[in-house]
Design a protein that fits this description.
With 139 residues, the protein is an alpha+beta fold. 31% of the residues lie in helices and 10% in strands. Strands 1-2 form a two-stranded antiparallel sheet. A two-stranded antiparallel sheet has the order 3-4.
Length: 139
């Protein structure tokens, strides 16, 4: 976190420090403060993620421990689709509603509305589609 924000020789500096992303003073000056605010990662698979503001700074109100799927869904390059008050990526919607990702993508490419694209009904035959195991997706 510190290296990518403040060390110009860091491989990721161009994505963080060069764009003005910084670490709050309380964390920059004290690992103990960081640890007391964030705690240890829940598992070895979790890393620090700037959330909910993916372009914001590293600070207590904008950080969480996230796994690779959560991190991937928080990329600035992702296209988000809104439905029922949630904004998620196609892969996240796929996991949430149980519709294969490729089905949603093909429906969208065909010009079908997003609400219908995530429908569990086979749009051609009107029968339920082969579903994936439903998983929860964080708000």
């Amino acid at each position: 976190m510190l290296a990518r924000c403040y060390r110009a020789t860091d491989n990721n500096f161009h994505r963080y420090g060069a764009k003005g992303i910084s670490v709050c003073d309380q964390w920059r000056n004290s690992f103990e403060n960081f640890l007391s605010e964030m705690g240890m990662p829940p598992t070895p698979r979790h890393t620090l993620d700037r959330f909910p503001n993916k372009t914001g700074n590293y600070e207590p109100s904008n950080c969480r421990w996230a796994d690779k799927v959560e991190q991937a869904n928080n990329l600035t390059s992702n296209k988000l689709y809104e439905h029922d008050g949630k904004k998620l990526t196609v892969p996240a919607w796929s996991r949430l509603v149980g519709v294969p990702e490729i089905t949603i993508k093909k429906r969208l490419q065909a010009g079908i509305s997003f609400d219908r694209a995530i429908s569990r009904v086979n749009l051609r035959y009107g029968s339920p589609i082969q579903s994936l195991k439903r998983r929860s997706v964080p708000d």
